[in-house]
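4.2 Preliminary Data

To establish feasibility before requesting continued support, the project team ran the inverse folding procedure on a target of 325 residues. The structure was first converted into the token representation described in Section 3, and no sequence information of any kind was made available to the design step. The complete token record follows.
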């Protein structure tokens, strides 16, 4: 049956009809809000490369999390900026590391109203800015695993619900799962950054986390943007190693990867709308070239439509406010 009997415009006539037949719906319940925590007290300082996002000191992060929870957003993802950096990234672990302190502060402020996820990586903590231990000018995979596992255990002990390894070392999900289980932290879930690409779109984040590599780049551990099949292998391996949820990152330039992963795997799938995706929209809207709200909603809807259950996004609060109207 075709035109004139069939007219697809019939169901686009007005807002009620359009909303009635909408295939993809956004909800704040799908969002995870990233937060950056820094040393000091009384700090809430805007990150210049990511307008609308802030560095919070531990004492200020609780109030922010109350707001996040009140908007109906179920989870935050923590990134820590340590007091000092060294070769080994020692600031990433220990019961008093900045992330462990933050987890306790958030729990005190909001109780169980928010899920607390912690990014597990060394790049914010190492003096060379790489995501692992450097030996002879190379990032040493196996030596890094133990440190990642230590960090994950520190965050879990402090009360994190979820740990999210973002380093792209081989075998880190298994190492982290084993370390958690050995410490009877069996209930803590792993959200693996499984298909994380070596992307230029992390640019603004590196200012936020002060984590730009001091030499070379991350292409010996993060994925080549040209590869899709390899992403599926990465995801399959992480699931085998014990990942509870998997992630594709960045999001909008990798919708094909999200769609494929959705088809092939049955565990919850997350996508990270990264700093560059966020800041490009914000910058263009500041110049009057694009409508900020519509670009935000269109990109988030596209990521959901491709198949992501969960979206890590710096727009979480703004989008939640808009969705509440
Ligand atoms: C840490 C990490 C990065 C991001 C999340 N975790 C930076 C990187 O790998 O260079 C990027 C997040 C963003 O750009 O919003 N490894």
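Position-by-position output of the design step:
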């Amino acid at each position: 049956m075709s035109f004139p009997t069939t007219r697809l415009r019939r169901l686009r006539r007005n807002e009620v009809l359009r909303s009635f037949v909408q295939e993809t719906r956004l909800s704040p319940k799908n969002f995870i809000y990233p937060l950056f925590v820094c040393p000091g007290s009384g700090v809430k300082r805007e990150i210049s490369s990511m307008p609308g996002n802030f560095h919070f000191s531990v004492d200020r992060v609780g109030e922010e999390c109350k707001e996040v929870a009140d908007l109906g957003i179920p989870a935050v993802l923590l990134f820590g900026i340590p007091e000092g950096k060294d070769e080994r990234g020692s600031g990433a672990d220990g019961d008093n590391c900045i992330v462990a302190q933050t987890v306790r502060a958030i729990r005190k402020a909001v109780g169980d109203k928010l899920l607390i996820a912690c990014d597990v990586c060394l790049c914010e903590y190492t003096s060379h800015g790489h995501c692992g231990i450097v030996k002879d000018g190379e990032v040493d995979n196996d030596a890094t695993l133990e440190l990642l596992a230590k960090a994950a255990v520190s965050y879990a002990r402090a009360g994190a619900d979820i740990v999210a390894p973002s380093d792209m070392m081989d075998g880190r999900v298994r190492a982290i799962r084993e370390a958690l289980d050995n410490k009877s932290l069996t209930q803590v879930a792993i959200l693996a950054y499984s298909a994380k690409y070596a992307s230029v779109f992390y640019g603004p984040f590196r200012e936020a986390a002060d984590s730009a590599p001091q030499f070379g780049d991350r292409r010996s551990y993060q994925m080549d943007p040209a590869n899709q099949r390899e992403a599926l292998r990465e995801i399959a391996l992480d699931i085998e190693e014990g990942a509870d949820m998997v992630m594709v990152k960045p999001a909008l330039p990798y919708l094909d990867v999200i769609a494929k992963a959705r088809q092939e795997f049955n565990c919850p799938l997350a996508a990270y709308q990264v700093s560059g995706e966020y800041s490009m929209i914000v910058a263009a809207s500041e110049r009057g070239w694009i409508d900020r709200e519509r670009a935000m909603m269109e990109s988030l809807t596209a990521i959901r439509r491709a198949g992501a259950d969960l979206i890590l996004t710096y727009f979480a609060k703004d989008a939640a406010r808009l969705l509440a109207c």
